[in-house]
Amino acid sequence: MKILKYTLIAVVAVVAIFFLVAALAPKTFKVERKLTINASADAVFGELNSFQKWEAWSPWIKKDSTIKNTYEGPVQEI
To answer: pLDDT tens digits, residue range 43-56?
Structure first.
């Protein structure tokens, strides 16, 4: 019975510590990522503006080889 009592006290203490830390933590946070691309803005925009060019650099296309993309409409160019 003592083991159950100490286990219950430990669980309550861990939960209380969790809520105390959550209450004292900042309410907002900021995540920032930065990447420098050694190319002109026009060249980068041209790659991002056309869905047909996304296949060359999209990580999702590389992870799933069964993806089949179809495109309609004019090809976007700068």
So the answer is: 888 888 888 888 88
